[in-house]
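Example (one chain per record):
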Amino acid sequence: MAKARNFSPWAYWMLRLQSDRATDPCPVEDPSALADWRERARARLRDLLGPEPERIPLDLEVRDSTDCGTYRRDSIVFDSEAAMSVPAFLLVPHDRQHPGSAVLAVHGHGPGKSEICGIDGEEGGDYAHQLAELGYVVLAPDLRCFGERADWAPPDKYLCDLNLVHAHAAGANPLAQNLWDLARALDVLGEDPLVDPTRIGVAGFSYGATMTLFLTATDERVRAAVVSGYFNAWSAAHEVPWNLCGSQVLSGMLTAIEHVDLGALAAPRALLVESGTEDLIFPVDAARTEMARLKSVYDAFGEADALEHAVFDGGHEWHGGLVEGFLARHLGPAA
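Predicted structure:
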């Protein structure tokens, strides 16, 4: 009988995905072990992300302003590190007079900040605009390779993957770089006179949810997070061949840090996860399983009410049905 052989790199990775296991999984069944595990997990995540750049002055500039009815949209730019600046929209409600709640809105794959601010893109994905309409100060930056930060690429090349090649050659990582830019975006909000720095949330869909979960796990300034169309398990989410891009991977992450691990590092701060019943990229069954595991962590902290799972009829899309009430409970009134 001829020996069964495999020629497919994808099949090879699928076999690895099913056989590789987390080296130090979150001890969801043993609350007494959580504190020590969290220290180890934080250290692992820091190692995966690598060293942070030098924190340089933001040198924020307002390029222009647009009246959007209930709020003003400022086009701003700030410096995140040497030789890199970040374009963003800052949405400021007209009736905001005193420091109040704010949300960092993180876009997914697509046009970038302009889509979530309602300028272009698919209907219903304008969650930065929706949050500003609710009365929040909202900061929506372009991540690297998107919007104003998108370089030219040949039609058969994917920009995130090209950027990953350059980053790896230099010993860097795009996810870590975007995470740093978002940390600097939190600096921008923290210095805004109309923002209470103790009442900042983050919201993102798809790749924006990837970055929201990582940011919440690594930055204590985030008091509440909305993770839409992402929270899952590596073994389920990566069964779809095209469900990967160069901007959302860390070398060795499959065995070092799981979605539930990131959630456990975010705990006990408020976390709302959205899952569509027809999402083929991040399957709802796996999301339910991992959320049940994460609930044990929040229960151990005595903060069961801080974790919510909104399961809706739909696919890979932003829903937002519970967002208004969730943010009001955990950030206080928008104004």
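Caption: The chain has a mean pLDDT of 95.
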